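Notes from the 1:1 (GR / supervisor)

We went over the backlog. Supervisor wanted to see one worked example end to end before approving the batch request, so GR pasted a single chain during the call. The sequence is below; no edits were made to it. Supervisor asked that the structure be written out right there so they could see what the output format looks like.
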Amino acid sequence: MGPPGSGKGTQAKNLAEKFDAFYFGTGDLMREEAKKQTEYGKIFQAVWDKGKGELVPDEIVEKFVGEKFAAIDFGQGVIFDGFPRTLNQAKHLEKVFTQKNEDFIVIDIEVSDESIIQRMAKRRVCADCGKIYIDDASLNQCVKCGGSLIRRQEDEPEVVQKRLDVYEAQTKPLIDFFNSEGRLITVDGEPSIEVVEQEIERIVHE
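Structure output shown during the call:
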């Protein structure tokens, strides 16, 4: 967990690769649907096009994620990124894990709003593989796959602030919920990617 721009996507992908776990990036999956113009994709795109930083309704997300869950081997280990984002989604996830007799922890990456806004202003993303680049204007294409680097619609400054407002109102209550469940571990997300990665790996190893 963490606000938009906290680095949770980068950390989730690194962690999944390090521990050979399944990476479940809800945002990436949604953008893929939008790119294909599926029925789900059209719904997701309609929400994003409003430019208000709103979240896709819970019932749509839970149905979409539920269908994707069918292809996951939870025994392998799963790293979730972008789900859950509301209290209802959190309770839904907890129910899924209980049914599968599996357990999970929640890592909350804390970063100030000021740092988030500065990061997002410098962020570009590979249109093909989704690799994120911060503050590297010298690059014109992805070093991983050669894809074009773009600024995502949700990274525009006015949308970022709205997304932070939505996060504060809808997603932060999850912190209290998971904390009360004894699942929450907080990590300082202000240092470098490498420092944060080391701390998260230490937590997972424990």
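Supervisor's comment: The longest helix spans residues 157-171.
Batch request approved.
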